């Protein structure tokens, strides 16, 4: 029975605070003490235990369990105020399958090629505003770029008032809710009280309402247009139909768009900030990557960047050390399941823990060190390495996020000569649901210019000349 699992002995309230305050220290501490599976009472003394699982064999059982074995939307209530009730991460069963089937096509396969030039162009446009005489926060720059990408690629918003207003509102709201004290409100519903616009929850409600008004206005306007020639995700979702010929409602569209924004903006920006830190703090890694990109010639194209083996390995190792989310979506047991000789009863909560799995020394020697070559020399299973979750609840934006990381990083690395501007030790700290490098990673321009070629020409221009 699950009672045999090692469990935290401190009071439940202290366990919860320990996890919220410093999740990296929490997982490191108890993995060292108990191993890859342990239990905690982070939901209160009267609630079921939460079982954190990082063992690959156990994860294989969980990810391959039959439909109906678990309920998944129930435990994601902390996201509901932001994403809404119709978000993919809130749904279960047939409703989840229907929504997922509608959302997957725009984020995979050939559709990705429609986005590559936009991502590179928005990156180039943003880095042109940098002053060569001043250092800058890499995390803030990445957040600016990834938000522009989301608004253009997902929402299809061109530069203009609505885009500018939405960009400012979203940036302001995310800056607020990623504050540790502010974001703690999402874990404690009893504190979600509107005491006016200057109270934390009152501020959230008003910002959220303003964002919703702009999104619904965009949806209404787009429904009246011909979107057949558009390639943005909103246009594709507006025309998508399920097996019964039904389209998505305004609320479904709004909730899915907000989810893609929430889970694809700050998360990717944080991973990119880590990526810049690791590469620019390791001369060996930087030189090896420079050699790989230089081999592409003076004007590396997007489709060439995304195929580079070492750049791919750097992305994967970045996501291994501090994955976009530390856990995969929690599962609530519906029918008793036996995992590694332990039986978990109905209502037990199983949490596939990405961080625990990624720091198993058996699979990743010297797991706390940045070693991209491990992804060139080894093949890891989907139960050893799964930065975007696993099973039927794996993140639908995984391919797009990795694609975006390669293009943004590759574009900046090939065009700017940068260096770390601060030698202060970088520590992982919590910012909302993501783990970011402390200080935001300060970068500055290096004295020696190392630009591999002129600014990338637009693919459309190259096609015309060809």
TrEMBL record:
> Is-annotated flag, keyword Oxidoreductase?
yes
Native source organism of the sequence: Dactylococcopsis salina (strain PCC 8305)
Query: Gene3D superfamilies this protein is in?
Result: Cytochrome P450
Q: Select a single GO molecular function from the record's annotations and give it.
A: monooxygenase activity
Residues that bind heme: 395
For this chain, the family text in UniProt reads: Belongs to the cytochrome P450 family.
- What cofactor does this protein call for? heme
Recite the UniProt keywords alphabetically.
Answer: Heme, Iron, Metal-binding, Monooxygenase, Oxidoreductase
Concerning PROSITE patterns, the annotation shows: CYTOCHROME_P450
What Pfam families would the database entry show? p450
Q: What is this protein called?
A: Cytochrome P450
């Amino acid at each position: 029975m699950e009672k045999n699992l090692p469990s935290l002995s401190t009071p439940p309230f202290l366990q919860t605070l320990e996890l919220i305050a410093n999740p990296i220290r929490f997982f490191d501490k108890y993995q060292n003490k108990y191993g890859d599976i342990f239990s905690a009472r982070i939901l209160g003394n009267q609630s079921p235990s939460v079982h954190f699982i990082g063992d690959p064999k156990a994860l294989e059982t969980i990810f391959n369990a039959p439909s109906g074995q678990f309920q998944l939307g129930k435990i994601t209530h902390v996201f509901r105020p932001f994403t809404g009730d119709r978000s993919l991460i809130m749904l279960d069963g047939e409703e989840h399958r229907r929504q997922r089937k509608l959302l997957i096509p725009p984020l995979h396969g050939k559709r990705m090629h429609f986005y590559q030039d936009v991502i590179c162009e928005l990156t180039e446009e943003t880095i042109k505003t940098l002053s060569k005489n001043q250092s800058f926060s890499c995390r803030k720059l990445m957040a600016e770029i990834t938000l522009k990408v989301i608004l253009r690629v997902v929402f299809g918003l061109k530069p203009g008032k609505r885009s500018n207003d939405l960009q400012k509102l979203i940036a302001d709201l995310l800056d607020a809710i990623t504050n540790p004290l502010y974001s703690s409100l999402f874990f404690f519903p009893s504190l979600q009280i509107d005491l006016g616009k200057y109270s934390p929850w009152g501020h959230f409600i008003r910002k959220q309402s303003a964002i919703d008004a702009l999104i619904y206005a965009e949806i209404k306007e787009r429904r009246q247009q011909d979107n057949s020639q558009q390639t943005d995700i909103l246009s594709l979702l507006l025309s998508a139909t399920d097996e019964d010929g039904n389209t998505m409602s305004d609320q479904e569209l709004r909730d899915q768009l907000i989810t893609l924004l929430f889970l694809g903006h700050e998360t990717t920006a944080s991973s990119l900030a880590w990526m810049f830190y690791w590469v620019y703090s390791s001369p060996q890694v930087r030189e090896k990557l420079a050699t790989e990109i230089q081999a592409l010639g003076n004007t590396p194209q997007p489709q060439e960047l995304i195929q580079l083996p070492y750049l791919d390995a750097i992305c994967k190792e970045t996501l291994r050390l501090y994955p976009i989310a530390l856990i995969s979506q929690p599962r609530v047991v519906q029918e008793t399941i036996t995992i590694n000789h332990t039986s978990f009863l109905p209502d037990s909560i199983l949490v596939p823990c990405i961080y625990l799995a990624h720091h198993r020394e058996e699979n990743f020697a010297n797991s706390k060190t940045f070693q991209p070559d491990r992804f060139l020399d080894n093949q890891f299973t989907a139960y050893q390495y799964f930065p975007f979750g696993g099973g039927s609840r794996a993140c639908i934006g995984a391919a797009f996020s990795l694609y975006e990381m390669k293009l943004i990083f590759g574009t900046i690395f090939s065009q700017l000569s940068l260096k770390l501007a601060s030698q202060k030790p970088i520590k992982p700290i919590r910012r909302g649901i993501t783990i970011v490098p402390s200080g935001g990673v300060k970068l500055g321009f290096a004295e020696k210019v190392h630009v591999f070629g002129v600014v990338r020409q637009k693919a459309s221009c190259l096609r015309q000349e060809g």
